[in-house]
Amino acid sequence: MISSLEKLLGTPRDGALLRYSLGLEYAKAGERERAIEFLRDAVARDPMYSAAWKALGGEFAEAGQADAALDAYRHGIDAAKARGDRQAEKEMTVFARRLERKT
């Protein structure tokens, strides 16, 4: 799946969704650094992409980077609020609170 998606990089289909998808696939493959790289690309291309912020926060949290995870969740919460995505907002709020309690 990763190689199929990577073939689309640099084509007209390259965008936030492709970068998000690659980030998720690399995360599934256990390649956290590559996952973070593509998820960062996704939110850089579309700062309102709350699902990408949520995934990025999760990868940072799994990597033990609590500050980066909290930052990603906070951006994601703002994006979710702006888009009216209440479910994503609630989920990231819970994740952020859990991290804040640990630190």
3D architecture notes:
There is one protein chain. The protein is mainly alpha-helical. It has a single domain, classed as Tetratricopeptide repeat domain (Serine Threonine Protein Phosphatase 5, Tetratricopeptide repeat). Helix content is 78%, strand content 0%. The protein has helices spanning 2-6, 16-28, 32-45, 50-62, 66-83, 86-102. Helix 2 (16-28) packs antiparallel against helix 3 (32-45) and helix 4 (50-62) packs antiparallel against helix 5. The longest helix is centred in the last third of the chain and has 18 residues, at 66-83. The chain is globular and about 40 Å long. The termini are far apart.
CATH superfamily: Tetratricopeptide repeat domain
- The shape is globular
Major sheet summary line: none
Number of helices: 6
Mean of all residue-level pLDDT scores? 97
Helix and strand content put the structural class at mainly alpha
| CATH topology-level fold name | Serine Threonine Protein Phosphatase 5, Tetratricopeptide repeat
Regarding CATH, which class? Answer: Mainly Alpha
